[in-house]
Every structure is written in structure tokens, then in C-alpha cells.
Amino acid sequence: MTAHNPYSHGGYEQYNAHWKDIQSAQNVSNRVIFTRGHPLLVKQLYQRAYFQDICSLMGERRSSAQFLEFGSGRGTTSMYLASEGYDVSLVDRSLEAFRLARINFDNEEIDCPEMILTDVERSGIKSESYDCVFSIGLLEHFEDPRSTLRESYRLLKPGGLIFHVIVPAFPLSKMWFHNVLFALLLFAPGNFVFLMRRLSSRRVARKEATEKSGKNLLRTNHKRDQYLEWLQELGAAEVRCIPYNPYYVPNNPYYVPTARSRIAYKAILFLYAWHLELRKRMKGKRTLLLETMPMLETCYLLAGVKP
Ligand SMILES: C[S@@+](CC[C@H](N)C(=O)[O-])C[C@H]1O[C@@H](n2cnc3c(N)ncnc32)[C@H](O)[C@@H]1O
């Protein structure tokens, strides 16, 4: 099921080191992804859409709902919920993640929500306490995510929504469409070579960076059908595991700061924003902003309702 992966599941120290690094890194774009204004980064564009998709699936009941974010990290999605006045609590077991989340909430003058320092596999929280339990980029970090899935389901009230965004370890080759688009935006055939070199060197650099800081965080590649089956086994209704989020981040201008890559990045951000806007206008036809086709997926959305 899971291809050989040299990384182990992140323990408490590994995640703490991860969030500490982000707090002290020169690259500020990772500290806070929430934005009230126009997105200047691709991840700002899709993070807000995660929040909007949660709201769409919750429908009218969202105004009185209690939300819980599992593995909340810096609290991006919860910031959107809290800034709109929704009742949200955060669960994480990293103190450093909560430290960063608190700074982010304070800086944006959003009331800091309840932060529960516990394990998502055994939270100790009372059963059936929340109307929506969600996570963004959590389940793929467990070799076997079933206990986390079971725990999130246990905490749901009857009628409650489960919403997990999963970011699997897709091979780079899967992103060929995005990469070709990105190369075309650089307006020269020679740039395909440039792009390939850039992508592979980035990949190596990234791997070295994670190994150096000792994080070695696991990212699995379980299939969509597998997640679907696991949630069905828990007895959830309206279960779906769909291709999600077509907005691949082709290049990070802060990581490879060349003039050329900055222009290409801005062009692709513009294209994505325009595409998303179009989807919003056609929203009558689809409920979810980030639903996509398998060829374009960068994530899965695993969702279901507790009967
Ligand atoms: C990729 S991050 C999520 C990022 C988050 N969506 C954000 O916007 O910052 C995964 C988070 O899950 C937390 N985590 C991992 N395993 C956990 C566990 N067993 N119990 C509680 N939290 C855990 C980590 O500390 C980390 O903050």
C-alpha cells in the first residue's frame, strides 16, 4: 500500500523542531498563511478555499456549530473560522505549534480559541462534542491513520461532518500538467530543461533540509479508495474521497528567488485566482470550490457525515 518511505512518523520533538524552525526562519511566508486581503501566495489562495468548502458542506447549521481542528499546527483554517465568528477549538500536541498559532491570532486581532494539547489518536475529549471535525494535512503523516480517523469520528455529534484534507506523497511526475504549464509561462523551450533542473535540485535541497533538522516527517501514499473504505468501516454516511485542490505550487519565489521564477509564479497565481473566481460564479453547479479531476489533484478530500 505504502511505497518504501525512509521517513518515520514525526514524534513530539520532531514537530516541535519543525514549528520552531518556521518561527525563526527568514522566510515569513510559512509562519502565517491566513490573509484578509488578496492572496499573494498560491497556498493563501487555496487555504481560504478550504474554509469556504467546509462552510458549504456545513450549510445553514454552521452558525451555531462547534468546530474542532485536528493537528491544527499554526491554525490557518481555524483563523478563517474564528475571524468570521465561528466557534472553533484546536488540537495539537506540539507546544511550538500553539505558540505560533497564538502569535498569528494575536497579530490578526482574532480572539484566541481554545487550544487542546493532546494526541489526535487518543485525545481524551468527550465523545460527540463537535459538529465538525476537520484536518488539513494530517492523516498522511500516519503510517496507519485509522486510529486518528476513528478518534475524529468519535468526537462528532450525530449529523456532524468529518472533513479531512490529505496531502499524499505524489511522485513529481504526477504533476506533469502543472509543470508543463509552468514551463510554458516562462515562454521558451529551453526552460523545460531549466525547469527540470530546478525541480530536481529543489527536491534534493528540500530532502537535505529536512534531514539536517532531524525532522524526517513521514508522508504516505495511501490511495483514495483506501481512505474511503476506512471511513465507511466506521459507519459514516455520504462518504466521499475526491480529487481535490488543482492549485499546485510550481515554485516558491522565496525559495528560488530569481526574477524569472517570480514572474512565472505571479502569472500562475493570477491564472489560479481567475480560475477560482470563475468556479465561484458557477457555484450553483458544484458545492465544492476545490473539487477537481484526478489528473489535477494535489490532495484528497475525505468527507462524511455521522448518521
Ligand atoms: C502538517 S501540520 C498541519 C498544518 C496546519 N494545517 C496549518 O495550517 O498550520 C500537522 C500537525 O499535526 C500535528 N500532529 C501530528 N501528529 C499528531 C498527534 N499524534 N497528535 C496531535 N497532533 C499531531 C503536528 O504537531 C502538526 O502541527
Task: Spell out the blueprint of helices and strands.
Blueprint: H1 12-24, H2 42-58, E1 66-70, H3 76-83, E2 87-92, H4 95-107, E3 114-117, E4 130-136, H5 146-154, E5 156-166, H6 176-185, H7 190-212, H8 224-233, E6 237-244, H9 259-281, E7 299-305
S-adenosylmethionine (SAM) binds near residues 15, 73, 136 and 138.
Feature tags:
single chain; 307 residues; alpha/beta; Rossmann fold; 7-stranded mixed β-sheet; 9 helices; 16% strand; disordered N terminus; binds S-adenosylmethionine
Helix content: 40-55%
The spatial strand order of the largest sheet comes to: 3-2-1-4-5-7-6
Intertermini distance: 29 Å
Task: Please report the number of helical segments.
Answer: 9
pLDDT below 50 for ≥5 consecutive residues: which ranges?
1-8, 204-214, 252-256
The radius of gyration over CA amounts to 19 Å
Write down the CATH topology of one domain: Rossmann fold
